[in-house]
Amino acid sequence: MEVRDCDVKMGRLNIKNVSRIFTKKEDGSRTEALHDISFDVQDGEFICLLGPSGCGKTTLLRIIAGLETMTSGEITLSGVPITGPDPKRGMVFQQYSLFPWRTVIDNVTFGLEMQGIKKDEARRQVEKYLELVGLGQFKNSYPHELSGGMQQRAAIARAFANEPEILLMDEPFGALDAQTRNTLQDELLKIWEQKQVTFLFVTHSVDEAVFLSDRLIVMTSRPGRIKEIVKVELPRPRSRTSPEVNRLRDRVLKLLKEERFSR
Ligand SMILES: Nc1ncnc2c1ncn2[C@@H]1O[C@H](COP(=O)(O)OP(=O)(O)O)[C@@H](O)[C@H]1O
Ligand SMILES: [Mg+2]
User: Which ligand is closest to the CA of 174, given by its number?
Assistant: First the structure.
Protein backbone atom coordinates (compact mmCIF):
# COMPACT_ATOMS: atom_id res chain seq x y z
CA MET A 1 0.00 0.00 0.00
CA GLU A 2 1.22 3.44 -0.88
CA VAL A 3 1.99 5.58 2.14
CA ARG A 4 1.54 9.28 1.59
CA ASP A 5 2.25 12.27 3.74
CA CYS A 6 -0.86 13.78 5.17
CA ASP A 7 -1.85 16.59 2.81
CA VAL A 8 -3.65 18.53 5.50
CA LYS A 9 -1.06 20.86 6.96
CA MET A 10 -1.65 21.66 10.58
CA GLY A 11 -1.67 25.40 11.04
CA ARG A 12 0.78 27.00 13.43
CA LEU A 13 -2.08 28.67 15.27
CA ASN A 14 -5.49 26.97 15.43
CA ILE A 15 -8.44 28.91 16.78
CA LYS A 16 -11.54 26.79 17.28
CA ASN A 17 -15.04 27.95 18.24
CA VAL A 18 -13.82 30.72 20.51
CA SER A 19 -16.48 32.74 22.33
CA ARG A 20 -16.11 35.29 25.11
CA ILE A 21 -18.91 36.66 27.25
CA PHE A 22 -18.11 39.34 29.81
CA THR A 23 -20.38 39.30 32.87
CA LYS A 24 -20.63 42.38 35.04
CA LYS A 25 -20.17 41.49 38.70
CA GLU A 26 -22.53 44.20 40.00
CA ASP A 27 -25.71 43.32 38.09
CA GLY A 28 -24.92 40.11 36.19
CA SER A 29 -25.44 41.81 32.80
CA ARG A 30 -23.69 40.05 29.94
CA THR A 31 -21.78 41.35 26.92
CA GLU A 32 -20.93 38.84 24.25
CA ALA A 33 -17.67 40.13 22.76
CA LEU A 34 -16.76 37.16 20.53
CA HIS A 35 -19.05 34.53 19.05
CA ASP A 36 -17.77 31.22 17.68
CA ILE A 37 -14.53 32.39 16.08
CA SER A 38 -12.60 29.74 14.13
CA PHE A 39 -9.63 30.13 11.82
CA ASP A 40 -6.14 28.73 11.30
CA VAL A 41 -2.95 30.65 10.73
CA GLN A 42 -0.16 28.96 8.82
CA ASP A 43 3.53 29.18 9.61
CA GLY A 44 5.01 32.47 8.48
CA GLU A 45 1.68 33.87 7.37
CA PHE A 46 0.82 37.56 7.70
CA ILE A 47 -2.80 37.90 8.82
CA CYS A 48 -4.59 41.20 9.34
CA LEU A 49 -7.72 41.40 11.45
CA LEU A 50 -10.22 44.12 10.59
CA GLY A 51 -13.58 44.97 12.07
CA PRO A 52 -15.75 47.70 13.55
CA SER A 53 -14.74 49.24 16.85
CA GLY A 54 -15.86 47.08 19.79
CA CYS A 55 -16.14 43.84 17.78
CA GLY A 56 -13.65 42.04 20.01
CA LYS A 57 -10.34 42.34 18.14
CA THR A 58 -8.33 43.30 21.22
CA THR A 59 -10.13 40.66 23.27
CA LEU A 60 -9.21 37.98 20.73
CA LEU A 61 -5.56 39.06 20.66
CA ARG A 62 -5.42 39.11 24.45
CA ILE A 63 -6.91 35.61 24.59
CA ILE A 64 -4.29 34.34 22.13
CA ALA A 65 -1.58 36.11 24.16
CA GLY A 66 -2.88 34.27 27.24
CA LEU A 67 -3.71 37.56 29.01
CA GLU A 68 -7.46 36.98 28.87
CA THR A 69 -9.64 33.87 29.23
CA MET A 70 -12.24 32.56 26.79
CA THR A 71 -15.72 31.42 27.74
CA SER A 72 -15.58 28.48 25.35
CA GLY A 73 -13.41 27.20 22.53
CA GLU A 74 -9.84 26.07 22.11
CA ILE A 75 -6.66 27.66 20.84
CA THR A 76 -3.47 25.76 20.12
CA LEU A 77 -0.04 26.89 18.96
CA SER A 78 1.79 24.06 17.17
CA GLY A 79 -0.74 21.68 18.68
CA VAL A 80 -0.21 22.83 22.28
CA PRO A 81 -3.23 24.46 23.99
CA ILE A 82 -2.74 28.03 25.15
CA THR A 83 -3.18 28.36 28.89
CA GLY A 84 -1.29 31.56 29.75
CA PRO A 85 1.30 34.05 28.51
CA ASP A 86 4.46 32.71 26.85
CA PRO A 87 7.41 34.48 25.21
CA LYS A 88 6.61 32.43 22.07
CA ARG A 89 3.65 34.76 21.62
CA GLY A 90 4.88 38.34 21.55
CA MET A 91 2.53 41.28 21.76
CA VAL A 92 2.89 44.88 20.58
CA PHE A 93 0.25 47.41 21.64
CA GLN A 94 -0.94 50.67 20.14
CA GLN A 95 0.51 52.61 23.04
CA TYR A 96 4.25 52.22 22.98
CA SER A 97 4.26 50.85 26.52
CA LEU A 98 7.98 51.30 27.10
CA PHE A 99 9.28 51.78 30.63
CA PRO A 100 10.09 55.51 30.79
CA TRP A 101 12.86 54.99 33.34
CA ARG A 102 14.73 52.48 31.19
CA THR A 103 16.88 53.28 28.15
CA VAL A 104 15.94 51.80 24.77
CA ILE A 105 18.35 48.90 25.11
CA ASP A 106 17.21 48.17 28.66
CA ASN A 107 13.59 48.16 27.50
CA VAL A 108 14.49 45.66 24.80
CA THR A 109 16.39 43.40 27.23
CA PHE A 110 13.51 43.38 29.71
CA GLY A 111 11.95 40.07 28.60
CA LEU A 112 15.32 38.33 28.59
CA GLU A 113 16.12 39.63 32.08
CA MET A 114 12.75 38.28 33.23
CA GLN A 115 13.86 34.90 31.94
CA GLY A 116 16.91 35.12 34.18
CA ILE A 117 19.49 36.14 31.58
CA LYS A 118 22.19 38.44 33.02
CA LYS A 119 22.00 42.07 31.93
CA ASP A 120 25.34 42.10 30.04
CA GLU A 121 24.48 38.92 28.15
CA ALA A 122 20.95 40.21 27.41
CA ARG A 123 22.40 43.48 26.08
CA ARG A 124 24.72 41.53 23.80
CA GLN A 125 21.82 39.41 22.53
CA VAL A 126 19.54 42.30 21.65
CA GLU A 127 22.06 44.37 19.65
CA LYS A 128 21.00 42.69 16.40
CA TYR A 129 17.35 43.51 17.02
CA LEU A 130 18.14 47.16 17.66
CA GLU A 131 20.04 47.21 14.35
CA LEU A 132 17.14 45.43 12.64
CA VAL A 133 14.73 48.23 13.57
CA GLY A 134 17.30 50.97 12.94
CA LEU A 135 17.76 52.02 16.55
CA GLY A 136 21.41 51.06 16.99
CA GLN A 137 22.45 54.68 17.51
CA PHE A 138 19.64 55.40 19.97
CA LYS A 139 20.08 52.46 22.28
CA ASN A 140 21.11 54.62 25.22
CA SER A 141 18.29 57.14 24.77
CA TYR A 142 15.26 57.26 27.01
CA PRO A 143 11.74 56.84 25.53
CA HIS A 144 10.85 60.52 26.02
CA GLU A 145 13.81 61.46 23.82
CA LEU A 146 12.36 59.50 20.88
CA SER A 147 9.60 60.16 18.35
CA GLY A 148 6.47 57.98 18.39
CA GLY A 149 7.76 55.99 15.42
CA MET A 150 11.07 55.30 17.14
CA GLN A 151 9.34 54.27 20.35
CA GLN A 152 7.23 51.82 18.37
CA ARG A 153 10.38 50.48 16.71
CA ALA A 154 11.78 49.88 20.19
CA ALA A 155 8.58 48.02 21.16
CA ILE A 156 8.93 45.87 18.03
CA ALA A 157 12.60 45.14 18.84
CA ARG A 158 11.55 44.19 22.37
CA ALA A 159 8.98 41.74 20.99
CA PHE A 160 11.52 40.22 18.58
CA ALA A 161 14.18 39.92 21.29
CA ASN A 162 12.13 37.11 22.85
CA GLU A 163 12.32 35.27 19.51
CA PRO A 164 8.57 34.68 19.31
CA GLU A 165 6.94 32.24 16.90
CA ILE A 166 4.04 34.56 16.46
CA LEU A 167 3.68 38.30 16.91
CA LEU A 168 0.34 39.70 17.99
CA MET A 169 0.07 43.37 17.13
CA ASP A 170 -2.88 45.49 18.24
CA GLU A 171 -3.12 48.57 16.01
CA PRO A 172 0.60 49.15 16.52
CA PHE A 173 0.80 52.02 14.04
CA GLY A 174 -2.56 53.57 14.91
CA ALA A 175 -1.07 56.57 16.70
CA LEU A 176 1.51 57.42 14.03
CA ASP A 177 1.33 59.96 11.22
CA ALA A 178 0.77 58.59 7.70
CA GLN A 179 4.37 59.01 6.54
CA THR A 180 5.89 57.27 9.57
CA ARG A 181 3.24 54.60 9.35
CA ASN A 182 4.12 53.78 5.74
CA THR A 183 7.83 53.61 6.62
CA LEU A 184 7.18 51.26 9.52
CA GLN A 185 4.97 49.05 7.34
CA ASP A 186 7.85 48.73 4.83
CA GLU A 187 10.29 47.95 7.60
CA LEU A 188 7.99 45.43 9.25
CA LEU A 189 7.64 43.55 5.95
CA LYS A 190 11.44 43.48 5.59
CA ILE A 191 11.79 41.98 9.06
CA TRP A 192 8.97 39.54 8.35
CA GLU A 193 10.74 38.33 5.20
CA GLN A 194 14.02 37.95 7.07
CA LYS A 195 12.71 36.26 10.20
CA GLN A 196 9.74 34.33 8.82
CA VAL A 197 7.68 35.09 11.90
CA THR A 198 3.91 34.61 11.85
CA PHE A 199 1.93 37.83 12.27
CA LEU A 200 -1.56 38.46 13.55
CA PHE A 201 -1.99 42.19 13.10
CA VAL A 202 -5.08 44.19 14.08
CA THR A 203 -5.70 47.39 12.18
CA HIS A 204 -8.62 49.68 11.42
CA SER A 205 -6.90 50.77 8.21
CA VAL A 206 -8.04 48.88 5.11
CA ASP A 207 -5.05 50.32 3.20
CA GLU A 208 -2.67 48.94 5.80
CA ALA A 209 -4.33 45.50 5.76
CA VAL A 210 -4.24 45.28 1.96
CA PHE A 211 -0.61 46.40 1.89
CA LEU A 212 0.61 43.98 4.56
CA SER A 213 -1.39 40.79 4.65
CA ASP A 214 -1.49 37.39 2.97
CA ARG A 215 -5.06 37.05 4.19
CA LEU A 216 -7.27 39.52 5.88
CA ILE A 217 -10.02 38.52 8.24
CA VAL A 218 -13.04 40.79 8.37
CA MET A 219 -15.13 40.59 11.54
CA THR A 220 -18.76 41.53 12.08
CA SER A 221 -19.86 44.09 14.63
CA ARG A 222 -20.36 42.86 18.20
CA PRO A 223 -20.57 40.07 19.01
CA GLY A 224 -17.56 39.61 16.75
CA ARG A 225 -17.93 36.75 14.31
CA ILE A 226 -15.94 36.08 11.17
CA LYS A 227 -17.65 37.79 8.29
CA GLU A 228 -15.24 36.94 5.53
CA ILE A 229 -11.66 35.83 5.00
CA VAL A 230 -10.10 37.53 1.99
CA LYS A 231 -6.98 36.17 0.36
CA VAL A 232 -4.67 38.95 -0.82
CA GLU A 233 -2.98 37.55 -3.88
CA LEU A 234 -0.96 40.60 -4.83
CA PRO A 235 2.76 40.21 -5.53
CA ARG A 236 5.26 41.91 -3.23
CA PRO A 237 6.61 44.53 -3.06
CA ARG A 238 3.13 45.93 -3.38
CA SER A 239 1.91 49.13 -4.83
CA ARG A 240 -0.41 51.18 -2.64
CA THR A 241 -2.38 52.52 -5.56
CA SER A 242 -2.57 50.00 -8.42
CA PRO A 243 -6.01 49.18 -9.90
CA GLU A 244 -5.87 45.71 -8.25
CA VAL A 245 -5.15 47.29 -4.86
CA ASN A 246 -7.98 49.77 -5.34
CA ARG A 247 -10.41 47.00 -6.30
CA LEU A 248 -9.54 44.98 -3.24
CA ARG A 249 -9.75 48.04 -0.99
CA ASP A 250 -13.23 48.82 -2.33
CA ARG A 251 -14.36 45.26 -1.70
CA VAL A 252 -13.14 45.28 1.90
CA LEU A 253 -14.55 48.75 2.56
CA LYS A 254 -17.92 47.51 1.33
CA LEU A 255 -17.78 44.57 3.76
CA LEU A 256 -17.02 46.92 6.64
CA LYS A 257 -19.71 49.37 5.60
CA GLU A 258 -22.31 46.59 5.68
CA GLU A 259 -21.39 46.05 9.31
CA ARG A 260 -21.65 49.72 10.18
CA PHE A 261 -25.19 49.88 8.88
CA SER A 262 -26.38 46.40 9.79
CA ARG A 263 -27.29 47.20 13.41
N1 LIG B 1 -12.53 43.33 30.62
C2 LIG B 1 -13.71 43.60 30.06
N3 LIG B 1 -14.84 43.62 30.80
C4 LIG B 1 -16.05 43.88 30.24
N5 LIG B 1 -16.23 44.11 28.93
C6 LIG B 1 -15.15 44.10 28.14
C7 LIG B 1 -13.83 43.86 28.65
N8 LIG B 1 -12.95 43.91 27.61
C9 LIG B 1 -13.68 44.18 26.52
N10 LIG B 1 -14.99 44.30 26.82
C11 LIG B 1 -16.09 44.55 25.87
O12 LIG B 1 -15.98 43.64 24.80
C13 LIG B 1 -16.27 44.26 23.56
C14 LIG B 1 -15.08 44.12 22.64
O15 LIG B 1 -14.01 44.95 23.08
P16 LIG B 1 -12.60 45.01 22.35
O17 LIG B 1 -12.05 43.63 22.28
O18 LIG B 1 -11.78 46.03 23.03
O19 LIG B 1 -13.01 45.50 20.87
P20 LIG B 1 -12.11 46.11 19.69
O21 LIG B 1 -10.67 45.91 20.05
O22 LIG B 1 -12.53 45.37 18.47
O23 LIG B 1 -12.48 47.56 19.57
C24 LIG B 1 -16.61 45.70 23.91
O25 LIG B 1 -18.01 45.82 24.01
C26 LIG B 1 -15.96 45.92 25.24
O27 LIG B 1 -16.64 46.89 25.98
MG1 LIG C 1 -9.08 47.25 20.22
Answer: 2
